[in-house]
Amino acid sequence: MTVDELYKLVKWVQSEVVEKDVTKAYQQLYAVLSKNAQPNQPTQSFEKEKSNLVSKLESISVDSLSSYQIEYLEKYGLYKYIGLEGISNINDILSSSGIDLVYAPQKINMIISQMNQGLQKLKQIDVGLTGLVEDKILMQLDNEILMSIRFAGQAAISNISDLKKWGNIWFEIGRGITMAHDMSPESIKIIGATKGSVILELVTNYDIMLTISTITLGVYKVVEDILDLWNTAEDLKTKNLEDIAENILSAAEDRKQKGITEIIEIVKSEIKLLPPDDSEKISNLTHSIKELMDFIEKGGTIDYTIPENHNEQEKNSTFQKLIETRPKLKVKEKRIEALEAYNKVSNDEEEKED
Q1: Most distant CA pair in the chain: distance in Å?
Q2: pLDDT 10s digits, 259-280
Q3: Beta 144-150 vs 301-305: how paired, if at all?
Q4: Which among 187, 190, 194 has a CA at the least distance from the CA of 150?
């Protein structure tokens, strides 16, 4: 994550969590619950305090945050206690099927403690960055959206050769997608880059981003199926069922080929691109999808950021679809990470046995 992104996250937490008195709402709920936990005390209703807390949590949307900013919220113990995650957590603690009068206040108190620790750490970051990072208004994008590509895993960039390889691949990906819009690859502009896993920051228009996100969601679904099949094959190999494992691996390759065709049809039907008689566009987009699938199979990820002030943009149906697609991408991304982790553990164990 860039220093600029971290600074923006700190300011976001200040306005969305601190200034909305979220921890105070948790404390008010805790006060009533802790009284109810005392022996020989009449039970008080906590619905008012719960309603107040839920109202504050509902007002917090993380849609404008990048996946890397969300990772930092998780790291500092804040993410699962705010927004929709926070509401789900509170409902679990205060289950209508029966509340544990001792457990509930203890859990809420632990949340308050974790949030205070996280907020304190972010405050220290804020102090450290103040004066080093210019507190400026975000650049105004006219019908454009910020996108980030992370080169990680087997798709990592660690030297010039890797840079050339993945640069060429992403040119082909961008070329096929922008051609489908009768535009050039230059319609996707690089505005920044960070080190570590290597993250490219790009900007493009809503229409191209919707095509990229729709294709990526389709690719994620296919890669999820492929990884499931790969993991099944690995399990079979450990049981000396090599022939069945080979059949499973063959099924994984078939799923990839069928998946590419399915994604092309989704682009045709949902985004209304690719006239049936335009073989060149279909060929180039098919190549883009293959390259993107390879990128994601090897550990690469794609994300985009919903602008913070997007009331006007929401009138745009394309933008609305972008809002709806992003959480679906995040769910699939987490699922793929879990499957990749399982696959890595299985391979490591197999190497040890050898």
Answers
A1: 80
A2: 999 999 998 888 777 777 788 8
A3: antiparallel
A4: 194
Residue type at 217? L
pLDDT at residue 133 is higher than 70: no
Q: How far apart are CA 19 and CA 115, in angstroms?
A: 14
Mean pLDDT of the chain: 84
With tokens 């790009």, the residue in question is 202
Task: Give me the count of residues in the chain.
Answer: 354
Per-residue pLDDT tens over the stretch 101-116 = 788 899 999 999 999 9
Please give the helix or strand (H or E) that residue 301 lies within, else none.
Answer: strand 301-305
Nearest-angstrom CA–CA distance, 116 and 110:
10
> Which residue type occupies 271?
I
pLDDT score for 95: 75
Contact 316, 204 (CB under 8 A): no
54: amino acid identity, one letter = V
* Secondary structure (3-state) at 212: helix
